[in-house]
Amino acid sequence: MTLGEKLKEARKQAGLSQEQLAEKLGISRSAVAKWETDKGIPDVDNLKALSGLLSVSIDYLLDDGQDMDKTVIKEAIDLSVYEGNRKAKKDSCVRGKYPDARISSLIAKAKLTKGQRILDTVLELFTDGCGVGDIYSSLKDLDKQYYLVEQGDKQLLVLVTDEFIISRELAHKQYSNKFEIGDIRFTKCAGQIK
């Protein structure tokens, strides 16, 4: 598959039109159309943004031998079949998907822009240490729960929403309790998901 074919397929799997993708990237629809017909190539910044928006790796987009299904698996789920609160249901969903794996729950916080960092510092002075980063992350991702799944020699970053479980094999293993992927900072929670 060409880069253009991969972009088009990934865009469709993400449920986005060319117009919607262009809007999210801050570019014209015709630029997306050129990329998808192999009449143009996205620059490095746009490749990074495409990777995040379409849940595919840059390696996948540029490597003509990699299969998309090996990079990201997105499956619909029904949380109502599990017991407990929302978090417990998501834990059970991940355990059911990866029964023999070592699973760590992750706390995810978005990296802050320069303006948000300044506001964060000011807010922490007046709110007992609760900054804009904590508020922004908690409001933005109410339905998302992240997990680090270690299965054999693979590490997967798994995202569970109220509707989907999305598993992505990590290109580089994460050994630290704190790490960054894209614009998100992750911290491993103590203990394993049982």
Summed up, what is this model?
The protein has helices at residues 3-13, 18-25, 29-36, 44-54, 58-62, 86-97, 114-126, 132-140; strands at 72-76, 102-110, 145-151, 154-160, 164-169, 178-181, 184-188. By secondary structure, the protein is α+β, with helices and mostly antiparallel strands. The longest helix has 13 residues, at 114-126.
User: What's the SSE pattern?
Assistant: HHHHHEHEHHEEEEE
Helix fraction?
25-40%
Pairing-aware structural class of the strands and helices? alpha+beta
Beta-strand level of the residues, as a percent range? 15-25%
Strand element count: 7
Biggest sheet overview: 7 strands, antiparallel
**Total helix count?**
8
Radius of gyration: 18 Å
Q: What distance lies between the first and last C-alpha atoms, to the nearest angstrom?
A: 40 Å
- Specify the overall morphology: globular
Ranges where pLDDT stays below 50 over 5 or more residues in a row are 66-70, 130-140
Mean pLDDT: 81
- The strand line-up of the biggest sheet is 1-5-4-3-2-7-6
